[in-house]
Specification:
Length: 162
């Protein structure tokens, strides 16, 4: 035990420069192992604070469409659903299942999130809900909702007499 703590942490893997563990001031206390065991206990149901439960989605409007981009790294297109419900509500949902534990496997860390997510967006009146398209590339789901063309009012010029 060092008298001066290393505030920058220590590496859990010396070959990985990004595996820095944060310094824990209570690490050498006699009760620290019990607290750590309690904090590492996680039931098998998904946490609402997991990265998957909080899927980040951008929504931008272009002159021709509403475009939604969702970061869904590690998910296959079969694990995602894109639906338009009554009332012009776009729903994007997905699910990642936890890997099954094998009898002889020993886990050292389980940091990848698993569980379900669902995000809903009320589409504006100018959205063509029958023409929605979805595509996936490099872990990004892109949903494109075309917009109805803005009808220009018919203008009739009136001659002024006099």
């Amino acid at each position: 035990m060092s008298i001066i703590p290393n505030f920058f942490g220590r590496r859990s893997n010396v070959f990985d420069p990004f595996s820095l563990d944060v310094w824990d001031p209570f690490e050498d206390f006699p009760f620290s192992n019990n607290i750590r065991l309690l904090s590492e206990f996680r039931p098998n149901f998904p946490s609402e604070t997991s990265a998957l439960a909080q899927a980040r989605i951008d929504w931008k409007e272009t002159p021709t469409a509403h475009v939604f981009k969702a970061d869904v790294p590690g998910l296959k297109k079969e694990e995602l659903k894109v639906e338009v419900e009554d009332g012009r509500v776009l729903q994007i949902s997905g699910e990642r299942n936890r890997e099954m534990e094998e009898k002889n496997d020993t886990w050292h860390r389980m940091e990848r999130s698993s569980g379900k997510f669902m995000r809903r967006f009320r589409l504006p009146e100018n959205a063509k809900v029958d023409e929605v398209k979805a595509a996936m590339e490099d872990g990004v789901l892109t949903v494109t909702v075309p917009k109805e063309e803005v009808k220009k009012p018919d203008v009739k010029a009136i001659d002024i007499s006099g």
